[in-house]
TrEMBL record:
This is PTS alpha-glucoside transporter subunit IIA. Keywords: Cell membrane, Kinase, Membrane, Phosphotransferase system, Sugar transport, Transferase, Transmembrane, Transmembrane helix, Transport. GO terms for cellular component: plasma membrane. The lineage of its organism: Bacteria, Bacillati, Actinomycetota, Actinomycetes, Kitasatosporales. GO terms for molecular function: kinase activity; protein-N(PI)-phosphohistidine-sugar phosphotransferase activity; protein-phosphocysteine-N-acetylmuramate phosphotransferase system transporter activity. The chain crosses the membrane at residues 138-159, 171-189, 196-215, 227-244, 256-282, 294-317, 338-359, 371-391, 398-428, 448-469. Its main location: membrane. It comes from Streptomyces subrutilus.
C-alpha cells in the first residue's frame, strides 16, 4: 500500500515537470527530489505546490521538489522507474501532458516566494558559490550513512552506560565506526565524480590517507598517521587526481592511455598526498577543531547568537554549504559536530515566527492553511515550506525568525561556554529529528535537556518577536483579510509590498 502511495506521488509529479523527455537527471538528498530539466518553462510550479505530498519547490542549479525525510527516498526510485517507462513508450511528438489533477489557486505570497527564489538563483550564479555547491554535492550523498551510523553509535553509548547487552557492544561499535574509518575513500570517489574525473581513481588516491602502512612514512620530519588530513585531505587529493588525469588524457597517446593514465594519476597524486597534502590537511583539520572548541568555550553565548541568527540568511545566499566539510571534519575528530545544534536553532526561530503569523492573521484562511500544513515538517527541521511560503515573502517575519534563531543559539552556546559541550554525530537533520543524533560528555539526559531548552527559547523568542514586531499597520491591513480562495488575484504586483522595516 505504501508503494502504491509513493508511485502515485511520483506519477502526479512527472507530468507537472514536463514529462519523461524533459527530465535529464534525477537525484535526491535528505528532503528533496532534485531534477535536471531540459526545458524549465514546461514545469507547472503552482500545480506541484498543490500536490498533497509536496512541501514546496526550490529552484537552484537543479529543480528541487521538497518531499520531506523518508518520503523522498521512497518516491525517487518510483519517479526514476516512471521516467524510464515513459521514455521507452516513446510518445508521439507534440503529445501534450494531461491536465493537472487538481485545480490550482494562485497565491500572492507563493508568487513573491518564487520571485525571491529566482532572484536568489541569479545572485548565486557566481564562481565561488557554484564551487560551494559542488563541494556540497560531494558530501550530500554521504548523509544517509552518517545518520545511520550516528544513531547506532548513540544506541551503543546508551546500552553501554546502562550495562545492557555487553556482548552486543563490539558489533554495534563496528557498525558505527566502519563507515567513518573509510569516509575519506567515499569523499575521494565523489570528488572525482563531481569534478569530471574517474571516480574510482579519486577513491584510490584518497584510500592512501587511511591505509595503516602510512605510519612508516616520514614527511616534514614527522611520521604520518593513518587518517591524517581526513576528509579535507581526501578532497584535495582527489581534486589533484582529477587534474592529473585530465592532463594525461590530453597528452598520452590513445594506445597507451588505458595503462599510463591511471598509473600516472595514482602515482603523482599519491606522492603529493603522502609528502604534502596529508600534513597540510592534517594541520588545517586540527586548526578547525581547535578553533571551534575555543570559540564556544570562551565566547559560546555570543558565538551561538551570531551563528543562530545568521544561519537563515546564509542558507538564502547558499553560503551554508561551506560548513559541510567543517561539520564532517569535527565529526571525524571528536565524534560529533558542536556547530549543528546551534545552527538548528534557526529552524526553531522560523517555526516560532510562523506560529505568530498564524495567530496574527486570523482572517487570512489561505495563509493559515499553508502554515498548518508546513508546521509538522518545520518541527522536524524541514524549513523550506515556511521560509519560501511564509516568512521570506512577508519580509519582516523573516528577520524576526532570525532573532528567534539567535536567542536559541545563544542559549545552547552559553552551556558550551559553561563546559557542557555536545553536538550531533551526523549532519543533515535538525529540529526534533536531531534528538537521536545528539552526543556529549555530560550524559544523554543533560544533552537532551539543553537542546530541548534551546528549541523552546527559539520558538518563544521567534513567536514574540514576530507577534509584536513582525508587522506594520499597513501589512496587517493588506494581509489580515479573507480572500475568496477560489478566485485567484488578477494583479501579480500588489500596490504596496510589505517592507523589511
Amino acid at each position: 500500500m505504501s508503494t502504491d502511495k509513493n508511485r502515485a506521488t511520483a506519477a502526479a509529479i512527472l507530468p507537472l515537470v514536463g514529462g519523461p523527455d524533459n527530465v535529464l537527471s534525477i537525484a535526491h538528498c535528505m528532503t528533496r527530489l532534485r531534477i535536471a530539466l531540459r526545458d524549465r518553462t514546461l514545469v507547472d510550479d503552482e500545480a506541484l505546490k498543490a500536490l498533497p505530498a509536496v512541501l514546496g519547490v526550490v529552484e537552484d542549479d537543479t529543480y528541487q521538489i521538497v518531499l520531506g525525510p523518508g518520503t523522498v527516498a521512497r518516491v525517487t526510485p518510483e519517479f526514476e522507474a516512471l521516467v524510464e517507462e515513459g521514455r521507452s513508450a516513446a510518445p508521439a511528438p507534440g503529445t501534450e501532458p494531461g491536465p493537472a489533477p487538481h485545480p490550482v489557486t494562485a497565491d500572492e505570497l507563493a508568487d513573491r516566494g518564487a520571485a525571491l527564489k529566482d532572484a536568489r538563483k541569479a545572485r548565486n550564479a557566481t564562481p565561488f558559490k557554484l564551487f560551494l555547491r559542488r563541494i556540497a554535492n560531494i558530501f550530500v550523498p554521504l548523509i544517509p550513512a552518517l545518520i545511520g551510523c550516528g544513531i547506532i553509535a548513540g544506541l551503543n553509548g546508551v546500552l553501554t552506560n546502562l550495562g545492557w547487552l555487553p556482548g552486543l557492544s563490539p558489533a554495534l561499535a563496528a557498525m558505527a565506526s566502519g563507515f567513518m574509518s573509510l569516509i575519506a575513500v567515499f569523499v575521494g570517489y565523489n570528488t572525482a565524480k563531481e569534478f569530471g574525473g574517474t571516480a574510482v581513481l579519486g577513491g584510490a588516491v584518497a584510500a592512501i590517507i587511511v591505509f595503516p602502512g602510512v605510519a612508516k612514512i616520514t614527511a616534514f620530519g614527522m611520521e604520518l598517521k593513518p587518517g591524517q588530513g581526513g576528509v579535507l585531505g581526501a578532497l584535495a587529493a582527489a581534486l589533484l587526481a582529477v587534474y592529473v588525469e585530465k592532463w594525461c588524457r590530453r597528452w598520452v597517446p590513445e594506445a597507451l592511455d588505458v595503462l599510463v593514465t591511471p598509473t600516472l594519476t595514482v602515482l603523482v597524486s599519491g606522492l603529493v598526498t603522502l609528502f604534502g597534502l596529508m600534513f597540510l590537511a592534517g594541520e588545517a583539520s586540527t586548526a578547525i577543531g581547535t578553533f571551534a572548541n575555543w570559540l564556544l568555550a570562551t565566547g559560546g553565548a555570543f558565538a551561538g547568537l551570531v551563528l543562530g541568527g545568521l544561519f537563515l540568511p546564509l542558507v538564502m545566499l547558499g553560503l551554508h554549504q561551506a560548513l559541510i566539510p567543517i561539520h564532517t571534519t569535527l565529526i571525524e575528530q571528536s565524534g560529533y559536530t558542536v556547530l549543528l545544534p546551534i545552527l538548528a536553532m534557526a529552524g526553531a526561530g522560523q517555526v516560532g515566527a510562523a506560529i505568530a503569523v498564524y495567530y496574527k492573521l486570523p482572517r487570512n484562511g489561505s495563509l493559515r492553511a499553508t502554515i498548518k500544513s508546513a508546521l509538522p515538517a518545520g518541527f522536524l527541521g524541514v524549513g523550506e515550506p515556511l521560509i519560501y511560503g511564509v516568512s521570506l515573502p512577508l519580509g519582516r517575519p523573516f528577520v524576526t525568525a532570525c532573532v528567534g534563531g539567535a536567542a536559541g543559539g545563544a542559549f545552547v552556546g552559553l552551556f558550551n561556554q559553561l563546559g557542557v559541550a555536545f553536538g550531533s554525530t551526523a549532519i543533515g537533520p535538525s529540529g526534533w529529528a536531531l534528538f537521536p543524533l545528539l552526543n556529549g560528555e555530560s550524559g544523554m539526559g543533560t544533552t537532551i535537556a539543553i537542546y530541548a531548552g534551546g528549541l523552546a527559547v527559539g520558538y518563544l523568542v521567534g513567536f514574540a518577536a514576530t507577534y509584536f514586531f513582525g508587522f506594520t499597520r499597513q501589512m496587517l491591513a493588506e494581509l489580515n483579510t479573507d480572500p475568496d480562495p477560489t478566485t485567484p488575484p488578477t494583479d501579480p504586483e500588489p500596490a504596496a509590498q510589505p517592507a523589511l522595516a
